[in-house]
Amino acid sequence: MNYRYFKPAVTQISLLGFGTMRFPVLQGQSGSIDEDLAIKMLRHAIDSGVNYVDTAFMYHEGHSEVVTGKALKDGYREKVLLADKMPLWMAKSEEDMARIFDDQLKRLDVSIIDMYLVHNINEAIWARALKFNIFDFLEKKKAEGKIHFIGFSFHDELPLFKTVIDAYAWDFCQIQLNFMDIKVQAGVAGLKYAGEKGIPVIVMEPLKGGKLTDALPEIIADTWAKAEIKRSPAEWALRWVANFPEVLTILSGMSTMAQVDENLTILSHAGPNSLTDKEVAIIEQVSDEYNRLTKVSCTACQYCMPCPAKLSIPNLLNYYNEWFLYDQNPKIIKDFNMFIPEKLRPEACTGCRACEEKCPQHLPISDLMRDIAEEFQQKK
Ligand SMILES: NC(=O)c1ccc[n+]([C@@H]2O[C@H](COP(=O)([O-])OP(=O)(O)OC[C@H]3O[C@@H](n4cnc5c(N)ncnc54)[C@H](OP(=O)(O)O)[C@@H]3O)[C@@H](O)[C@H]2O)c1
Questions:
Q1: What confidence score (pLDDT) does residue 262 get?
Q2: pLDDT, tens digit, for every residue of 57-79?
Q3: Which residue has the higher pLDDT, 30 or 164?
Q4: Distance from CA of residue 98 to its chain's centroid?
Q5: Any ligand 1 atom below 6 A from CB of 214
Q6: In the prediction, which pLDDT does 379 show?
Q7: Is 255 in the pocket of ligand 1 (CB under 6 A)?
Q8: Separation of 253 CA from ligand 1 center, angstroms?
Q9: Which CATH superfamily is domain 3-283 in?
Q10: 286, 338 in Cβ contact below 8 A?
Q11: 210 CB less than 6 Å from ligand 1?
């Protein structure tokens, strides 16, 4: 395993981190983790050198923390840095944060969470974090020795990312990054920004949740196959992330033992700044081919925002694009249902067309909202 130095802990962290959001499940039910296999996979990863494990309150309908805790019995807890997150959307008061945190310790059956993140910061969560004085709360937990390092995870846009980075002396942060999301969310610009400020970056969704590895469009499969160096799509994608020296560790949510083994091997060999120009060019070609399959030419410039009905228009268009780009992968509908609250789905568009007046791409956004609603409702 390759390791990278994490200065705040004066320790090395494995380049592969284990994300526990995609444990193997029984009968396709997210809440029914195949515990025996999940525990075997996590322990095998740790025995092979992984020393970073990431969980959250909501993963697997609340069962990820419990299974992670079980896997970390028998001496495994001491071998890893354990990361968990505060789901602020569930907190209605400052007292709720303390209750949720205590619940997490109980679910995990541990006394310390090494790496504690404010989960999924967006405008609303950030406002709540400030209103609830979350830094006082986190620093109190740090002083009590219940957490060691304070960070945040992020899925919103670059300007907010910069605001959040600048607002506090974070020990680390966590962003989505893969070769298709160079300019999406915090993106490479966010990675570099955090890097310049000396804040280590943990990467999530390096394989875009598996969309870069399964059901490849023919043209993409052909390009990978024609490359001089033969690599699996997972290896190309993980090596692309590992190439950035600003990346501390790469979380992958592995759902089979074979994936654990493959990712262990890949990240034992991928170094920073190790991709040649030729290799970068192949990845760019694949990225261009994916982009050519894009249905709606939204550039996520945000000119359409704010929407009077509070819809996150670029985000909804992104789901629609991904639906066609990644071969109608059911994961997209699953994510859509998980991350977009019902009242903020395209059906809530009032057709006021305020967004269309501002869209530099002249997209018929109201019609597209209707198309998305129809397409996704049929597939539920
Ligand atoms: N804080 C947040 O807001 C947040 C949000 C998202 C994720 N996370 C964390 O970040 C972790 C990583 O994100 P992610 O799970 O989306 O990572 P990812 O690596 O992009 O996606 C994981 C999926 O990729 C596929 N996969 C993994 N290794 C593979 C291989 N070698 N070959 C082929 N396919 C492979 C599997 O899909 P199949 O199951 O289809 O085989 C797996 O379920 C999560 O597990 C979670 O801990 C945090």
A1: 98
A2: 989 889 999 999 999 999 999 99
A3: 164
A4: 25
A5: yes
A6: 67
A7: yes
A8: 3
A9: NADP-dependent oxidoreductase domain (3.20.20.100)
A10: no
A11: yes
